[in-house]
Automatic annotation (TrEMBL):
The keyword Zinc-finger does not apply. It comes from the Bacteria. CDD domains: CobW-like. Residues 230-264 have a biased composition (Basic and acidic residues). Pfam families: cobW, CobW_C. This is GTPase, G3E family. SMART domains: CobW_C (SM00833). Residues 278-372 form the CobW C-terminal domain.
Amino acid sequence: MNHSTFPLIPVTLLTGFLGSGKTTVLNHLVRQPELADALVIINEFGEISLDHLLFTHSAENLVMEMSSGCLCCTIRGDLVKTLSDMTWRFSRNGQRQFNRVVIETTGLADPAPIVHTLMTHPQVVNRYRLDGIVTTLDLATGNATLNRHVEAVRQAAIADCLLLTKADMVDAKTRNALLRRLDAINPAAPRWEVRHGEIAAAKVLDLGLFSTEGKAPDVERWLREEAYTDDTHHRGKEVGNAHDHHYEDEHGHHHGHDEQEHEAHHHHHDVNRHDDHIRAFCFAVDEPIPEDLLAAWLEVLMSFVGENILRVKGILNIEGSDQPVVIHGVQHIFHPPATLPAWPSADRRSRLVFITRDVSRQNIEDTFRAFRNVLPQAREAAA
Ligand SMILES: Nc1nc2c(ncn2[C@@H]2O[C@H](COP(=O)(O)OP(=O)(O)OP(=O)(O)O)[C@@H](O)[C@H]2O)c(=O)[nH]1
């Protein structure tokens, strides 16, 4: 955990495929009081940049554009520089003028490299923290986009929150097919239906482990292990309405699934017509894990299949420690682990949620067991 004198500035990454409605959403977000003091960084790819023409921000927002290349490849260095310069450029009398950052990526970007920069670059991590990845997905064309573009699948898989846009343009059948598909790609992220960009800022902010309210970290909300229903078989009990689907229309009220639909969607988990090769599951370990076992296992796992581990989040019971450790990784890159002051509940098992591509739960479990079995010999050899 970072204990720097100044609170870390939360950064929201807004991603989503080309034309999926990012700018429309952003236009609504920046008008809301929660984002009155936000710094907005817009990344446009290529020479023809239209977003700045469409983007009508309120006078309070500070808008930066970075259009020299795609944020995910060529200008990560620029992002670091922009973020580290910001505090000075936008400060008055030694006080910075923004309390949040929102970065809109290009539609084609694989968000993972940007997330890596935000999670690990020394100049960034000492001032900023990734609050959440918000992904827009067009309800009407989302299925086709997911079929054609693996970037869109990745964007949906690593999201902390999914904004299902253009809700006014979709019929029930198309919508339900997309929802079922998302159950496999990313069962845990809250989903909100959005029309013409209308979404309450509070729904897309404070998605991370630490909130701006300064309250104790809400591990359960962050991990949402209960959403990984795949795990029900392992625990031998039914989790039930594990999904917390939120459907928001322009009046802001909820549309729950009716019973029948809910049933249907549970049973469709494994019979997805489109196999996006994405697996989402929770892996739990009852016994405290020796630190060297964890380090060796994760290192090998990441070096062999790191690219295909889209996201890992977990709370861990480390042998010899009373305090839980939370870890958070995107592909092979991990956020520095944070030690929490106390366990959030009586459940002290280590729990890791994985979102992977072509890596099964079995692979994860087998490697863990293999490492656990050889640990005594490895220790002996090292001694
Ligand atoms: N009918 C309808 N149109 C929408 C909605 N949201 C966005 N649009 C339209 O969809 C088009 C694309 O929206 P943008 O917000 O520019 O999408 P974007 O993701 O920023 O697009 P890129 O910058 O190209 O990646 C625009 O013409 C919007 O007006 C919606 O909820 N309903």
